[in-house]
Please model this.
Amino acid sequence: MHDQKQSRMRGPGIVLRRAAPDDAPMVSGMFLASFKATYDFPLAHTDEEVRGWIRDDLIPAKETWVAVDGVGAVIGVMALDGDDLAQLYIAPGWTGRGIGSRFVELAKRLRPTGLSLFTFQVNRGARRFYERHGFIVVDENDGLRNEERQPDVRYEWCPEARRA
Ligand SMILES: CC(C)(COP(=O)(O)OP(=O)(O)OC[C@H]1O[C@@H](n2cnc3c(N)ncnc32)[C@H](O)[C@@H]1OP(=O)(O)O)[C@@H](O)C(=O)NCCC(=O)NCCS
Model:
């Protein structure tokens, strides 16, 4: 496979690239803003803990990508952890412009044998989004398996060739 770190997916002024250590503050601010704009329950961790997790684990230890706008601001983040699409957050104000779809297409190219993910059941927009991209529900849970203790749903995407 070609060097993923050099890969650039270009769109109208928005570039998807691998996250670098220096991106951590912007990724953190964007992630916290997106989560808080989406859910009316709190994260299980403080903002400072989230910043530390993104700086010390998400960016250095996971396959994390960012979307950056024309002036270099981080407006989206996607992280793969094995075959899990572990994180996908677009900045408030940048949703609904196809950036999430570009990240999902990238994740499918990077994991052509299949992907799984969790989202919270209450997130109707994300569920519609993932289902439109071919993800199917595998199971639902009352929330005991996530830190926020919110009912969640697990999705999987399998390429057609594997389903047949
Ligand atoms: C869900 C999300 C990743 C989709 O990325 P996106 O760039 O907004 O999506 P696209 O523009 O490629 O596709 C638009 C679709 O996304 C979905 N969507 C979900 N939340 C949305 C939002 N806040 N604004 C716009 N579209 C949203 C809708 O299904 C929409 O389709 P519709 O116009 O037919 O309703 C993004 O909206 C987001 O980060 N939302 C907030 C955080 C979140 O829910 N993350 C997922 C956690 S598992």
In short: Residues 53 and 59 are 9 Å apart (CA to CA). The longest strand covers residues 74-81. The chain is about 35% helix and 25% strand. The radius of gyration is 15 Å.
